Amino acid sequence: MTKLSASLICAAALSFALAGSAYASGGPFGGSIYALRADPANAARVYATTSNGIFRSDDNGATWASKEVGLTSPHASNGVLALGASTLWTFDTAGQLHRSTNAGDSWTATGYTAPSGVLGVAFYSLAEGDGSKVWFAAGTNGLLLSTNSGATFAPASGLPAGQTFVSVATDPANRAHVIASTTTNCDAKGVCPVYVSSNGGASWSPSTLSGTLPATGGLFQHIIAVAYASGATYALYEDPNYRPSGYAASVLRSTDGGLSWTGHSIVEIEPPASIAVSPANSNTVWVDANKSIDGGATFAPLSSNGRTTNGTLVPTVSTVAVSAGYGTTPRLWLGTQFAGVFATSNDGANWAPSDEGLEATDIRSVVVSPADSSVVYAAYGDSLQDPSQALFRSGAGGAWSTSNHSMNAYQLRTVLIDPTTASSVGSTTMYAVGSGYDNSSAFYPSASFVRNSGIYKSVDGGANWVNESGGLPTSASHGVSVGYLRTIIADPRSCAGNSGPTGAVCTVGPLQTLYVTGSGRLGSGGAHPYRVMKSVDGGVNWADSSTGLPDDIVSEPTGCPAEYVGGVTPIVMDPADSRVLYIGTFAEAYDSNCNAIPPTIASGVYKSVDAGAHWTWSSTGLRNYDGSTAGASPGGSAVLDTLSLAIDASNPNTLWVSTNDGNIGFGAPGELFKSTDAGAHWTLSNAGVTGPDVRALLADPANAGTVYAASGGIDAADPGGVFKSTDGGATWQSISVGLPAFSATALTLDPQDSSILYAGTTGGVYSLVQSTDTDGDGVPDAVEDAGANNGDANNDGIKDRLQANVATVPAALVGSYGWHSGVANAARPALRAQVAVSDFFVKALPSGNGTDCKRTVDASMIDTSTLGADSVAHHGTYTYPNGIAHFELPQCAAANVDVAYTTASFGAGWTWRYYGPSVPGDASTIGWHDASSLVLSRVNGDWKIHLVNGQFGSYRPAAAGSILFEGGPAYNETIFTDNLEP
User: Fold this and answer.
1) Whether 744 and 874 share a structural domain
2) Which of 251, 271, 291 is the last residue of a domain?
């Protein structure tokens, strides 16, 4: 058994999926698809890059599986995925280049990291060349070439200096043929140069764009994608200024390898956009959801039959892939902005969703039915707008289906269940708010530009929905025009014959009074109404309820110089008095160049004591934006964005709020503040919170003083998590084992069993069945009691479950606790089979004069097969038969930690390794590292290591104030030193 002690003891848990557990398989599935790539050698195989990483299907898209083993920044993607002859290439979001030689089953970092700010130039910025060459269109850094399989890059020779390259492509039939496009040295029409090489970059020729291109006089017309076919080459040539209805591109054709081009079909696109050609007929071409059968001369849209989110709304297509077996079975896949993948096997006559296993849904609201806890609703809500499935519902066995009939919603931010109607699922009244479809718009035929407000109601448990917008203003181009809606709540005393604002809570409904928050009515400034709206008739009619919120400051009638309260996000009601409400706001400000600057207009928490009729600033003690002080603007100062609120059900004078700085960036832990005087004053209350960017707060209504906070995380080097306080926010403990780095932006509890916690993440819904954890170290008592020496693994005479700085994990119980993707069943999770030779424990103690380091959290064992091979030149490959430890030491400056493997022995060939960033907080430096410098001593299986906040050996930046470690003993049978074999 392994034991950790920093002078804390923690245990390690595996981070891969729990097999055979009492959990559903994950989901809901779908989400944002950046790019699809069909395997040219396998007709049934297709790859997808998504907002939650890279996936692969081997069965024509029927099922998908994550393919990220070895990627140093998993569960995120910038869309760059290049297919070579037998190799895949991708950049992770931190800029590290990786390659896979086994179809994505595992990845290896090449050692190259892209210059800062380069990625995102184009999804077609990477291409495999001939031999060991790799091409990289690196923006202002020019066209770069690697001749050593991506280990290093240098500027390609033979090209004019100082050019910005945005795309590069090579011919799969002849990798020495290269086409590269720029956005510099453009001519008077805005047409930018294209260069062609037929000899692997030894020499270049400028391409002649002889076809008639759109004479818009715009800038930066350039190739964004290339498709090769036998005897023909096609290019998608974007003109950002030519937008008859959104974005558009010219489709060009070349019969001489790109030296000259003809054709000028204009096709509407939505970036990133893609072009593909049939492997059986070079005259058949697709641009996203448009098809040409005459070599690109004309295009027609593909059928949308079966390709909708709710039977009506057709999502915007972002990418197309054509099966290598198209000539036999005309199979295509379309990836969408927010609605997953659709597939056809009959050339587009009919489509069907192709999402099973594709976990890329950004879930912003989760609720559980009070009538049946197996019914969980999950709302999709991205910051951008386009049709998505919007609302999912779990059913038998945790499987998900859409629950959006007649709901013309693009995205949703909050789902609300009226508990007075929930005697059965089918009788439940529900509400949802977000943004929806506007069919009145004539200005923008492309639906992706329409962002209509949406308030939706169902009286049958989500089976059917109607739009409720009575009394709300409209505009010619946006339909119902009250901005972007975020939160909806109901007054629990507002049923017929109610007993007043302080009387008994209704048990028979439906409830009639509701409040909705959002960004307010669109306009050029002034009062900015409808940031809060109120209905007293069950959502049928609405009225503005924003009096007292600050006016916008607009220095010009139009343009960027402006400052405004961008909107209202959370709203909570005093559980003892329905007249008392609190809201959280965020402010935005821009200079004359449209750059975001710190605002000065009053913002933060506002309070109403008259049921929303008037609001007053109630943010004393919250942190202000730099340059804003109390009294700087009428009614208060500009407070950092207040994006979540919670109120104590048993003591309504107690509230918590999270603040976030959206302009300056992140690095420090998420800030939480507490008020014990009904919002009059606030004090910092985030001791133990280590994750940045807290986006959700949840107060347990059945357990006074129990509060949860969800951190969305920044990246793999500064991950998010879920934190729990049982003392009213005085101290917090992370409960994040099993969550991805980009953790949670929504939380809810099962109303029938408060031990079951749900989180909405960028990869779907996760669930946690909480077990008794007396010492709050993240390892349940039952697990620690099963450890060595009858639960006293460090043999100090005290049970490990009673010591916050000692955590123990028996290898056989790894995976029996922590978060899992999907819906939790009533049964406890099944135990995972033993995956390590030895149990271990960790114990941590502060070093030097430190007095903190009082606990370890999230102790778990990591299966190194999920991290990729640890291979080092001249040293071979390290193996980890015992797994490696993962633990965090919050509020810890420096600590000495015992990581003890209680039944393992370590002789010659063993060393200590660390997996993480070599520079704390810098995801581009994540990988395997020699950590022998951290070892103070080793006695048998007990390794004592020294860790310091913000120094090598810790993930997080110094500002986080905590130490997050992942590593352990590695075995290498033959060690090479100084390039010589001993």
Assistant:
1) no
2) 271
What 8-state DSSP symbol labels residue 426?
G
Task: Name which of 309, 438, 415 is nearest 363 in CA terms.
Answer: 415
Long-range contacts of 787-792 (CB under 8 A, 24+ apart): 787/1, 787/3, 787/11, 787/839, 787/841, 788/1, 788/3, 788/839, 788/841, 788/902, 788/903
Q: Which domain holds residue 321?
A: 31-78+273-349
| Distance (Å, whole) CA 370 – CA 35 | 39
Q: How far, in Å, CA of 861 to CA of 855, rounded?
A: 17
Helices (H), 609-748: none
Q: Within the chain, which residues score under 50 in pLDDT?
A: 1-24, 121, 216-217, 219, 243-245, 438-450, 664, 826-837, 975-982
For residue 314, the 8-state DSSP code is P
Please identify, among 739, 769, 799, the residue that sits at the C-terminal boundary of a domain. 769
Q: CA-to-CA distance for 199 and 133, rounded, in angstroms?
A: 12
The CA distance from 939 to 793, in Å, is 15
**Same-domain pairing of 872 and 935:** yes
Q: What does the block give as tokens for 379?
A: 């709302």
* 412 and 513 together in one domain: yes
Paired residues of 57 in beta bridges: 46
Token output for 714: 């920044």
Q: How far apart are CA 891 and CA 888, in angstroms?
A: 10
Are residues 765 and 28 in contact, defined by beta-carbon separation less than 8 angstroms?
A: yes
User: At 531, which CATH number?
Assistant: 2.130.10.10
pLDDT at position 449: 41
- Dihedral angle sign, alpha carbons of residues 198, 199, 205, 207: positive
pLDDT for res 630: 64
In a domain, 87, yes or no: no
DSSP one-letter code for 712: -
Q: Are residues 266 and 291 in the same domain?
A: no
pLDDT reported for residue 135: 97
Q: Are strands 194-197 and 46-50 parallel, antiparallel or unpaired?
A: unpaired
Residue 804: left (phi > 0), alpha (psi -120 to 50), or beta?
alpha
Tell whether 194 and 212 lie within a shared domain.
Answer: yes
203 DSSP 8-state letter: S
pLDDT digits (tens, 9 = 90+) for 162-217: 999 999 999 999 999 999 999 888 877 777 889 999 999 999 999 877 555 655 44
Q: Does residue 881 have a cis bond before it (omega within 30 degrees)? A: no
Are the C-beta atoms of 35 and 866 separated by less than 8 Å?
no
- Cβ neighbours for 206, distance < 8 A, ≥ 6 positions apart: 193, 194, 195, 196
Give the per-residue pLDDT at 424. 96
Do the Cβ atoms of 668 and 959 come closer than 8 Å?
yes
Task: Tell me if residue 376 falls in helix, strand or coil.
Answer: strand
Indicate the pTM of the whole model. 0.93
Find how far residue 616's CA is from the centre of its chain. 34
Q: Does residue 25 form part of some domain?
A: no
Inside any domain, residue 354 = no
Main-chain phi, psi angles of 971, to 5 degrees: -115, 135
CA 180 to chain centre: 31
- Do 801 and 751 share a domain, yes or no? no
Q: pLDDT tens digits, residue range 324-343? A: 999 999 999 999 999 999 99
Q: Output the pLDDT for position 631.
A: 62
Q: How many domains does the chain have?
A: 4
Shared-domain flag, residues 12 and 36? no
Q: What pLDDT was estimated at residue 12?
A: 29
Report which secondary-structure segment, H or E, holds 671.
strand 671-675
| Tokens 């207009």, located at residue | 601
On whether both 200 and 51 belong to a single domain, the answer is no
3-state secondary structure of 865: helix
Find tokens 């091979």 and name the residue: 869
Inside any domain, residue 739:
yes
Q: Is 494 exposed, middle or buried (0-12, 13-18, 19+ CB in 10 A)?
A: buried
Instruction: Output the DSSP codes for 445-488.
Output: -SGGG--EEEEEEESSTTSS-EE--BT--EETTTEE-S--EEEE
Give residue 223's pLDDT: 85
Cβ–Cβ under 8 Å, residues 511 and 479:
no
Encoded tokens for 288:
């996203």
